[in-house]
Design brief:
The protein has 167 residues and is α+β, with helices and mostly antiparallel strands. The chain has one domain: Chemotaxis protein chec, CATH 3.40.1550. It has three helices and seven strands; from the N terminus they run H-E-E-E-H-H-E-E-E-E. Strands 1, 2, 3, 4, 5, 6 and 7 form a seven-stranded antiparallel sheet that branches. The longest helix has 30 residues. It is globular. It starts with a helix and ends in an 8-residue tail after the last strand.
């Protein structure tokens, strides 16, 4: 049973991870894409051809991190990260780049989480009519970021497990 005390503890954890997330996203973009990425208050809005990449955490902390952006933004990321000109990029290049961004952000977040937390392989979804749901997930924080390529969103979802009942 999720008590008020457990809920408050979970909320405080997610707030800590959110602060780490902002620093990690900025660091990954500066180091790997040579782009300044800074938090923004822009509301989330999926667009046609939207990309969502994700990695999942398992162990003492369970959840996921998702990176979402428009196709044009993913193409600009791909050009910077993989040094592939826009004119020669394939859909597979865009998927690989977005998966790698989720993996780098998730891998860095993993370092601030409890010991023993594992990270999945990245998953990438694209299109104009889809939704992504992390089953059992709640306490979501979604943060917009701006960079020269456009706006993108990073979402952190925590899965709160119910305590096991032993009779």
């Amino acid at each position: 049973m999720l008590t008020k005390e457990n809920h408050m503890l979970a909320e405080s954890k997610i707030e800590v991870y959110q602060g780490d997330m902002e620093a990690i996203v900025s660091g990954v973009f500066q180091t790997m894409l040579q782009m300044e990425a800074y938090p923004s208050n822009e509301p989330w809005r999926p667009s046609p051809g939207h990309f969502t990449s994700s990695v999942y955490f398992g162990g003492d902390w369970q959840g996921a991190v998702l990176v979402e952006c428009a196709r044009s933004t993913a193409a600009a990321f791909t050009e910077k990260l993989m040094d592939i000109p826009l004119s020669t990029q394939s859909k597979e290049d865009l998927r690989d780049c977005m998966g790698e961004l989720a993996n780098m952000i998730g891998g860095n977040l993993k370092s601030v989480m409890p010991r023993g937390v594992g990270l999945s392989m990245p998953t990438v979804v694209e299109g104009s009519d889809y939704s992504v749901r992390v089953c059992g997930g709640n306490l979501t924080t979604r943060r917009a970021f701006r960079c020269e390529a456009g706006t993108f969103w990073v979402t952190l979802v925590e899965v709160v497990r119910s305590p096991s009942r032993i009779s």
